[in-house]
Amino acid sequence: MTHRLSRRGLLAAGASAAALSALPRTGFAADPWKDVRGLDLELLIWDGGAFVDGMMAAVQAEWSAVGGGRLSFRKSPFGELDRAVRSANQGGVGPDVFLANAPNVITYKTLGLIEPVTDMFSQADLDDFFPVVREGSLIDGEFYGPSTNENGQALYYDRRLTERHGIEPPRSLADAWTWAQWLEVFQEIQAAERARRGTDRFWALYPNMGNTGLFFSGVYPRTAGAAGSKAWKMVSDDGMTTEGHLNSAESLAGLQLMQDIHHAHGIAPVSQQRDMFYNDQVAFFCGVPIYRNPILEARPEIELATAPIPYIETPVIHTGSFAWLVNRETAKMEEAKLFVKFMGSARGNDPIARGWSSLPIRRSMLADRPEFLEGPMKLFADATLEWSALRPKTPGFSELDAIWARLEADVVSGGEVKALTDDAVRRIDAQLRRYA
Amino acid sequence: MSAIEHIGGRGAAAPARRLPAALRGWGPAALFLAPALILLGLFKLWPIAAAVDASTGVFSPGGVRVGDAGLANYADVLADERFRQGLWLSLFAALAKVPVQVALGLGAALVLQANSRASALARAAMVSPMFLGLPVTTFLFAYLFDLNVGVVNAVLAGMGLPRVAWLTDGTAAQLLVVGLSVWRDVGLTMLVFLAGLAAIPPQTAQAARLDGAGEWCVLRTITLPLLARSFQFAVVLGTLASFQMLAPVLMLTRGGPTGATDLASFQIYEAAFVYFDLGRASAMSLVLLLGLMAVIALEIRWLTVRWTYE
Amino acid sequence: MSRALLLLARAAAAAAFLAPIALLLSASFRENGEMYRHAAELGWRTFLPAAPTLDAYARVLELPLFARQLLNTVALGGFMATATTLTSLFAAYALARLPMRGRGGVFGLMLFTLFVPVDVVLPPLFFVVQDLGLIDDFSGLALPFVFSPIGVYLLRQAIQEVPRELDQACMLDGGGAWEVLRTAIVPNVRGALIACWLMHFVFVWEWYLWPLTAMRRDDGQLAQVAIAGLIDPLRSTDYALVFAAAVLAILPAFATFALLQRFLTASHATTGGK
Asked: Please, which of A143, A282, C154, C256 could form a disulfide with A206 given CB 3.0 to 4.6 Å?
């Protein structure tokens, strides 16, 4: 479920949380890390090369400063991360802590692989988290671990381009346009730019298919339904079936729109190469905050602006993240739980959120990130707070996502939408049934 | 030492090295086969037996065996239309890949068998696709074959031809997958034929030429028949590779677009590594195995060795 | 005339096969931003970088483990090629020449193991290697694949082509099984031996799934698997880095092949019969 918060309400909540945490507490340890014993911990993390290594070095520095021990890492490519977690304990006890793909928390809980850390977080802590951070890991009343960052999505564009054609895209969520409104603008800009450049190698929109793109993990079928409708939910409440949800009428309309964007309307290129915006071959680029610096680097003269992403019926954004989880079989249970608690605190989360150039997980931390409080990046913060929805909470999320990725690719290639979706639903449900 | 004394000397020493008569039939063979058999048993037969055992089980999404299914997995798999379609696609892939690969490999071996530096360089060039790892190859091909910003389409468009949606059009994707596979494996086929050509004593061909036979005639009547075993080997390897073709599909098309490249081997990978359903994956493998053995048996029948040196 | 045609054929073969690799090479000298910029239209910049730079190679050398991983691949390749060729030679010799019951059955069994898709064999194989305590160790990576049915097939076929008179001549001189192998067989199957060696050397470069599963230490990993880790689906990929790393990874294999391949040609492969 989404929480509709106003900016004022948010700052008020953040201020009160900060005020609360500043009050001295009797009966609560002044140093929350006094129980840290300095044991070595092994973490299973995503292998992101130097990017992740740098973040982890910063985390190690902070963890050592509160008395933590040496952190060693078992790295896994993102595509293998799920398998690595599921097979972590096969043949001996695996790593103490997992950094897993956030939507899989319910998967690992269902499979009995992780230990709840509810006792590590007070109610004030849980309230300080952004809703999507909290709800993804709250299962059956137990909290399993905080995520690493929140993303939000928006359309990046060059203001000089829109001004040239007299278009003024919305700048805040309140003015956001629906697809019907955007479509006209896209078509107009594309035709005008192509005429101006004398080439047809220019498109209006780069949806950024795949991870964190416009259709990320099935957002399009969801945005086509009214809030709370079956299409919007995508999976039934018990997480066991997509029949009647993913292939409901509104859902199919959303999928058809995905196809039309690429073919009937022809405003998006059928390409997997993200650099098209860097190479000035598309007008609007759907992205997450981390693209800001590469864009400025690739196009120094750009006047970077952002607009809320188009929606069909209900605005929905899926945010992407990782979650810190404790291996149920670890021999160092207390230390591992303290580490997860640390990564949920401002001190542990800050290096990671900054490393990702994205929003932190606590509202009280927002005050330290001025770039998200005003200017074009503010839209990402707003989008995360107001439009974000958890990805479908089902134990079979990996299977759902894998089949969704195929469906997305097939729909965009131009296959028959209803037949493809019915087939996908059938295969997804067959996989979800295995968790029953 | 004279030659006779030399021979006599060796003959006199030999009996001490001979094994007892009872073991002479088996002894040497067993010794030579031992390393291979141990490795075979431990690392190939045992896991295969485990896989057969797994095919009768029910597996949880955690990869743990939670029950028995008897032959139910096989029934499921054979009833699954998608898998049957995958088997047919594997067969078509073999029909497309094997003849092309064998012809190209043979041609390359014939043209490049000389000892010159130019030939050596060309041979190295032909084998070099194999040195590129799978992820890099497919990454490279995705880069080259993109519809809008790929080099191949740039060339096509520059020549006035329509751009081809290599990754999103069914037939084009099939061509791309098979083409990529042939590109990578032709070097291997060439090596096989080079080894075969090298084993042909040059006297045979020379004798024919002295009798007045032309190059083409020599090729047809002498060389090709003597390469029959290499043909056999190359065809078998190529068929195996087609039925087990995974990397191009896994990294370029993932079974798409709309199932055009949904090979049985890819479905097996998905079942094992994406859905963690080892029971089903093992059953699928054994069915594929049977199909593969049938195809290869047919091929070998068709290519039985007819000629020898004598 | 035919000489010129042959030359043309050689050149065409080399060009067609090298084209993707040539483009890989050329792309490794580009800056990342430029990678796709010029492929929408056809021009010389589509193929060659406008401002070639060695930056990507510098970045590859800055990767802390890359040199080590490349060394791993070369060492493992050499080891596996040699071990496989030897094992296959012995087994092929036994199957082709030495009398024993059930030869055909044993050979058929070996070939049969080739037909099973590797994906389903990997999980149980992982457990076998783990029980031997060899996970994350080079011997754990190498041993399961030292036995190669392809090698046995290739060498058995080659040995069968060697005339039995040579065997008999050696045995008349008083040689046992080992002498026959050493003096009569091996010199006459040199081409196949080298082909087998090269084939299995190259296979190590192609490996992905097994090293990914069985070697979890970064510093023990192979070059190609490590390069795959550079391809990042979540953020912008450093294309030039991947291409440059791929080029560097090819070099040892290419050099080895270039050095050894002359043994594949007729003049070196056999000593001929009498």
From this structure: A282
Whole-number Å distance between alpha carbons of A189 and A204: 7
Task: Judge whether C255 is closer than 8 Å to chain B, CB to CB.
Answer: no
**CB-based contact B275 A435, cutoff 8 Å:** no
Q: Does pLDDT of C210 surpass 80? A: yes
Q: How confident is the model at residue C266 (pLDDT cuts 50, 70, 90)?
A: low
Q: Give residues 191 to 230 of C whose Cβ lies within 8 Å of B.
A: 191-192, 195, 198-199, 202, 205-208, 223-225, 227-228
pLDDT in tens, B101-112: 999 999 888 888
| Strand (E) or helix (H) holding A204 | strand A203-206
Percentage of chain A exceeding pLDDT 70: 92
Predicted confidence band of residue A425 (pLDDT cuts 50, 70, 90) = very high
pTM equals 0.84
Whichever domain contains A128, its CATH number is: 3.40.190.10
| Three-point CA angle A312, A314, A318, nearest 5° | 95
Contacts of B257 (CB under 8 A, 6+ apart): A409, A410, A413, A414, A415, B167, B168, B169, B170, B173
What is the topology classification, in CATH, of domain C65-156+189-262?
Answer: MetI-like fold (1.10.3720)
Number of domains in chain A: 2
Cα C90 from Cα C96, distance rounded (Å): 10
ipTM, 2 dp: 0.80
Alpha-carbon span A269 to C36, nearest angstrom: 14
What distance in Å separates the CA atoms of residue A395 and residue A393, rounded to the nearest whole number?
A: 7
| Segment A36-61, tens digit of pLDDT | 888 999 999 988 777 888 899 999 99
Looking at per-residue pLDDT, the higher value among B300 and A242 belongs to: A242
What is the number of residues in chain B? 310
- Partners of A72 on chain C (C-beta within 8 Å) are none
User: Residues B69, B270: contact at Cβ < 8 Å?
Assistant: no
Cβ neighbors of C151 (< 8 A, separation 6 or more) are C84, C85, C87, C88, C92, C196, C199, C200
Structural contact between residues B120 and C262, judged by C-beta atoms closer than 8 angstroms: yes
Domain span at A327: 7-150+319-369
- Considering only alpha carbons, which residue of chain C is nearest residue A83? C213
Q: Is the peptide bond before B99 cis (omega within 30 degrees of 0)?
A: no
Is the alpha carbon torsion for A228, A232, A236, A240 positive or negative? negative
Q: What distance in Å separates residue C40's CA from the closest CA in chain B? A: 5
DSSP for A15-57, written as a single string: HHHHHHHHS--TTS-SSTTTT-----EEEEEE--THHHHHHHH
SS (H, E, C) A378-411: HHHHHHHHHCEECCCCCCCHHHHHHHHHHHHHHH
Enumerate chain B positions whose Cβ falls within 8 A of a Cβ in A.
Answer: 60-63, 142-143, 146-149, 165, 167-169, 254-259, 270, 273-277
Do A301 and A163 fall into the same domain? yes
The pLDDT of residue C236: 60
A154-158 and A282-287 beta bridge pairing: antiparallel
What's the rounded Cα separation, in Å, for the pair A17 and A125?
A: 8
Q: Has residue A388 been placed in a domain?
A: no
